[in-house]
Amino acid sequence: GDSVTQMEGPVTLSEEAFLTINCTYTATGYPSLFWYVQYPGEGLQLLLKATKADDKGSNKGFEATYRKETTSFHLEKGSVQVSDSAVYFCARGTSYDKVIFGPGTSLSVIP
Amino acid sequence: NAGVTQTPKFQVLKTGQSMTLQCAQDMNHEYMSWYRQDPGMGLRLIHYSVGAGITDQGEVPNGYNVSRSTTEDFPLRLLSAAPSQTSVYFCASSFGTGEKYGYTFGSGTRLTVV
Fold first, then answer.
1. B54 contacts on A by Cβ (under 8 Å)
2. Is-cis flag, bond preceding B8, omega within 30?
3. Which of A28, A77, A95, B70 has the highest count of CB atoms within 10 angstroms of its CB?
């Protein structure tokens, strides 16, 4: 069935380090792909999205490219800040009115 | 612009009690849904609605009821609370189904069943 796989956390980085969080999805159809971010004690917020192959979503310095050939949607940021500490969820749409979320990857950025 | 509002933020229930988690949105979104978030399991869909008067089951519907009498409101009812329902509950809404446009989430209700 439809699913999303993310790299296990927690991930700990120093400030200004390069971030990659891997995400792969099952290749059923041509789903929209999303990254959501959850800051401590809050609900999820949509960070970026891509709706077709080769699209690049970007927001707040984060980027992810929809790679159909590798069924991947890896999240990247060139220089992380302490304020980026959060849990990041990869998600994919489905053809039946639902969105499937990955398990989340916790990121801690230390000064 | 309030977005998606969930109440209460915290709740402690005794086993067997019932309660309703409230969710309201002011964005005229047709699609609304309820998720539960548990450590190591991500978000799991409980119930969803594609419009007023229409609801359907998600991945983990047992022990929960929903109704959608208006576009704005989508309450989640726990019929007889069990410790396994201890979780953080999120309501989400979207323009369309969320599959294309993404969701707006509420800030969550943290429920403990003792």
1. none
2. yes
3. A77
